[in-house]
Amino acid sequence: MYKKPIGIFDSGVGGLTVFKEIRKRFPFEDIIYFGDTARVPYGSKSRKTVIEYSIQNARFLIQQGAKIIVVACNTSSATALTQLQKLLPVPVLGVIEPGALSAVKTSSNKRIGVIGTEGTIRSQAYSSAISKLDKDCDVFSKACPLFVPLAEEGWESHEVTQLTIKEYLTSFLKHGIDTLVLGCTHYPILKTSIQKFVGNKITLVDSSEAVTDKLNEILPNRENKVTGQDWFYVSDNEEKFNLIASKILNMKIDKLIKVKLGEGWFLN
Ligand code: DGL
């Protein structure tokens, strides 16, 4: 049981922010990461499509022996978590509830902002999770779709990124929030630029940290003599993934394998 890996999936490179946090806190666990680089972005796709892709991704990780699935993608978590939990034989964790909990604990004025993809914002998953935890919280949401390609491009602090942040967030800040949930795996890649723009009075909530806390409750971190290994799978463009992943994770990616998606099956 111990050496069965933790499985993480995302629509692309964004979930590496979740991988990074889990790797840091679980140094002895094996981890398999799947980035669906052939079908990214999920944020602008229909609910039906996101559910279908999410089930395929999770099944693939289970075929590789995953003992638990972390749905790093906010869009998948917002759309497909219930179906995944019903269908899969292993525990499935999403990022929305841990992120919502962390936001409620962080906010003093109970005015919380949530930014995410169109799919995540449309689903209202964060606002309902926050309201369930504290009905007195006011939640203000905004889709920021252009942040995803900017993060995928590796433009963390590029001038274009700063202009885009300004365009999306200037009027949004009028809501007087004190907490801002980065409700998309890609956004922590832009965290320094976002924090610089919103200022230090607003606390950014990164769901990668929140979901790792939750994982720790289910799977207490155990010591072992052998350091955990990592496997990365992508559905396309492994060179680009390798480049961005090495930069985000600050490590050399040894095991990176491309898999082809089929109707619920993956062919090498
Ligand atoms: N990973 C997705 C999320 O967290 C963002 C990228 C996409 O649109 O696929 O929502």
Secondary-structure blueprint:
Layout: E1 6-10, H1 16-25, E2 31-35, H2 47-63, E3 68-71, H3 74-87, E4 92-94, H4 96-106, E5 111-116, H5 118-123, H6 125-133, E6 138-143, H7 147-152, H8 159-169, E7 179-183, H9 191-198, E8 203-206, H10 207-218, E9 230-234, H11 238-249, E10 256-258, E11 260-261, E12 266-267
Parallel strand pairs: 1-2, 1-3, 2-9, 3-4, 5-6, 5-7, 7-8, 9-10
Antiparallel strand pairs: 11-12
The structure holds D-glutamic acid (DGL).
Report on the structure:
- 43% of the residues lie in helices and 19% in strands.
- By secondary structure, it is α/β, with parallel strands linked by helices.
- The protein folds into two domains: 6-95 and 210-258, Rossmann fold; 96-206, Rossmann fold (3-Layer(aba) Sandwich).
- α2 (47-63) crosses α3, α4 (96-106) packs across α6 and α4 (96-106) packs across α10.
- The protein is globular.
- The model has no long low-confidence stretch (mean pLDDT 93).
- D-glutamic acid (DGL) is lined by residues 10-11, 14, 40-43, 73-75, 117, 120, 148, 184-186.
- Residues 10-11, 14, 40-43, 73-75, 117, 120, 148, 184-186 line the site of D-glutamic acid.
